[in-house]
Specification:
single chain; three-stranded mixed sheet; 44% helix; 3 strands; 2 domains
Length: 136
């Protein structure tokens, strides 16, 4: 292990060589952390998404309609917004054209569901990873 004296001697030499006016050496750099370690600690601190009520998944074909329900799935309700995934970009376009008010009225008619004021549609991220889901 290097002593403090060795560190100061090295600083004096560097200071003379590069004509640095600061009499004190810079603070030593902290070792860098791997981005994987940083992201894992940040993501672990985020609260988990609340579970989707089973009642909604059971009644989704009735709420959205059989044909739409075969290609969509409700994912979560967060801050009174229902998030729905579509299994194909074509179906995502179609479901976005479908009037939301029609689905919202049916959602309010189901007792025991948390209040929903809006619906957001997105393409299912599991499609890119190759893990497709099937509605039963």
């Amino acid at each position: 292990m290097k002593s403090r004296g060795d560190h100061l001697m090295k600083w004096k030499l560097t200071r003379e060589r590069f004509h640095i006016k600061t009499p004190y050496p810079p603070l030593p750099r902290r070792p860098e952390k791997n981005i994987r370690d940083i992201l894992s600690t940040v993501l672990d601190q985020q609260p988990a998404a609340p579970a989707l009520p089973a009642l909604l998944t059971e009644r989704w074909p009735v709420i959205a309609g059989e044909q739409i329900a075969q290609h969509t799935r409700p994912v979560q309700i967060r801050e009174q917004i229902l998030y729905v995934y579509a299994d194909h970009p074509g179906w995502l376009t179609e479901i976005r054209r479908f009037p939301k008010n029609h689905i919202l009225k049916k959602l309010t008619a189901v007792p025991g569901l948390p209040p929903v004021r809006d619906i957001r549609f997105a393409l299912d991220p599991s499609i890119r990873s190759g893990k497709r889901w099937k509605n039963s």
